[in-house]
Amino acid sequence: MTVGGPGSIPRLCAPVTAVGVVGPSMSPTLRHGDAVLVRRGGRPVRPGDVVVAVFRSRPELLVVKRAIRRQDDGWWLRGDNEFGTDDSRAYGVADVLGRVVFRYWPRPGRLPVSI
């Protein structure tokens, strides 16, 4: 699942950044069209967190995935939708840029943690 739109990769410079979700790979947790808040810094990423990251093999692609485990000084990521996702199984280790802390549109609420 990518965030933003074509050519609109958000820069996660601010402590909290709003981003739009594109694609089905995190369904049912996040759906195409959802808007979320991403936090840089704060507590460290833990397994089960939903994160915004960049795969080392695809640095131009900003993605939303679930952190599974630490690996090679980065994170192994998976999508929640087993039938429609490209994740670390295809692209390898990713560098996490921030944690998704809240969905504010269209169904406001915190995201469930699962592994």
UniProtKB/TrEMBL annotation:
GO terms for biological process: proteolysis. Gene3D superfamilies: Umud Fragment, subunit A (2.10.109.10). It is found in: Membrane. Keywords: Hydrolase, Membrane, Protease. Residues 16-100 form the Peptidase S24/S26A/S26B/S26C domain. GO terms for molecular function: peptidase activity. Coiled coil: none annotated. CDD domains: Peptidase_S24_S26. GO terms for cellular component: membrane. It holds the Pfam family Peptidase_S24. InterPro entries: LexA/Signal_pep-like_sf (IPR036286), Mito_IMP1_subunit (IPR052064), Peptidase_S24_S26A/B/C (IPR015927). PANTHER family: MITOCHONDRIAL INNER MEMBRANE PROTEASE SUBUNIT 1, PROTEASE FAMILY S26 MITOCHONDRIAL INNER MEMBRANE PROTEASE-RELATED. This is Nickel-type superoxide dismutase maturation protease. It comes from Micromonospora rifamycinica.
